[in-house]
Design goal:
By secondary structure, the chain is an alpha/beta fold. It is about 40% helix and about 5% strand. The protein contains ten helices and six strands. Bound molecules: 2-acetamido-2-deoxy-beta-D-glucopyranose (3 copies).
């Protein structure tokens, strides 16, 4: 279970268990191509930079582990590829790792270029036959695949931690979302037709914002209010962008997924969902947790495996999507 197929296996097994009721036919996606940041990195950044130490990986892989496009060791791309890397942004980052406050060099445009390379070169490899044909997606998979996106949180984080005021970061949102639009159009023009687009989460509930801006005004559950408002404005602009994409590309399916609301419910109603102490991280200053399966935040930036599983179960039904189409039916443009 150390390659991209394990990622897809978990993804599809959960889908089967959920079995949403709908008149729509399953899309039977033969592959998933994912673009994003650490919210969906399965080993991209650690394929290029020093690996993470224990306890990362303790609840699932039993070790710090990876499986990603950038993982050049034994990766099988038949079921797609994951281009996401931790610390990725939509826009070109001002500083990259290993600089202080550096972000991933694999920002969205680079991930798009990697996708273009994979699409073209995988077919050259397939022509060689043998094991090469068994490691690469078939040509028709690129049109039939699901394309998933979860990126933008670090563009906001880069602004906040780069000494921009909340208002300045907020004012940069239209440019960030516009850059996202440009790259998604390029991915459409490369042949993608089914898009599953996550909005960004409540960044003001995460420890790295709360710790860096202790005097920020809090909302009723203890999250930094104006930081979440910037995330909400990002999501408003993102949704407008998805509506625009539907108008200009009527033959493609664009599903907008409100991950924000699901994540926020973990902070506003933790007990209802089987969680406790949502604002306290498992790792980092003041953090500790004996049982990460009841905790929301892992390290002040990322959610625990248990929280991510809850989020996946909620969003894959389509209950938080526009249109309200379940994940495995996301090749359809409308319900029914
Ligand atoms: C790659 O994964 C596919 C789908 O799971 C499988 O059919 C194929 O045999 C795998 N290739 C190799 C070389 O293991
Ligand atoms: C933000 O400002 C502080 C204090 O002036 C400085 O130490 C820090 O390096 C700045 N951070 C960035 C990313 O520019
Ligand atoms: C962000 O900008 C939008 C559009 O100008 C505005 O409606 C919203 O109130 C702003 N939010 C913050 C937190 O500054």
């Amino acid at each position: 279970m150390t390659n991209i197929s394990s990622f897809c296996l978990v993804f599809f097994t959960l889908l089967t268990i959920l079995n949403p009721i709908s008149a729509l036919k399953s899309c039977k996606f033969p592959a998933i191509f994912n673009f994003g940041d650490s919210n969906s990195d399965t080993g991209g950044l650690v394929a290029s930079f020093p690996p993470l130490n224990s306890p990362y990986g303790e609840t699932y892989f039993q070790m710090p582990a990876g499986s990603a496009y950038l993982d050049s060791l034994g990766t099988n791309f038949t079921g797609g590829a994951n281009f996401a890397t931790a610390a990725s942004t939509i826009r070109l980052p001002a500083r990259i790792i290993p600089a202080n406050n550096g972000f991933s060099p694999f920002f969205f445009l680079v991930q798009y270029n990697q996708f273009v390379q994979l699409k073209a070169r995988s077919q050259l490899f397939r022509k060689q036959g043998g094991v090469f044909a068994q490691l690469m997606p078939k040509e028709e998979y690129f049109q039939k695949a699901l394309y998933t996106f979860d990126i933008g949180q670090n563009d906001l984080g880069a602004g906040f931690l780069g000494n921009m005021s909340v208002e300045e970061v907020n004012a940069s949102v239209p440019n960030i979302v516009n850059t996202f639009l440009t790259d998604v159009k390029s991915i459409y023009n490369s042949g993608a037709r089914s898009f599953w687009i996550h909005n960004t989460g409540p960044i003001g509930c995460l420890g790295y914002i709360l710790a860096n801006f202790p005097s920020a005004e809090k909302d009723s559950v203890g999250c930094a209010k104006s930081y979440n408002e910037v995330a909400q404005y990002f999501n408003y602009e993102l949704k407008e962008t998805v509506l625009h994409l539907r108008r200009v590309f009527p033959s493609a399916a664009f599903t907008y997924v409100d991950v924000y609301s699901v994540k926020y419910s973990l902070f506003s109603e933790p007990k209802k969902h089987g969680f406790e102490l949502p604002l306290v991280a498992c790792l980092g200053s003041g953090g500790s947790c004996d049982d990460p399966s009841v905790r929301v935040v892992w390290d002040g930036v990322h959610y625990t495996e248990a929280a991510n599983k809850f989020i996946f179960e909620q969003i894959s039904t389509g209950a938080f999507s526009d249109p309200p189409i379940p994940l495995k039916m996301a090749c359809h443009r409308t319900v029914g």
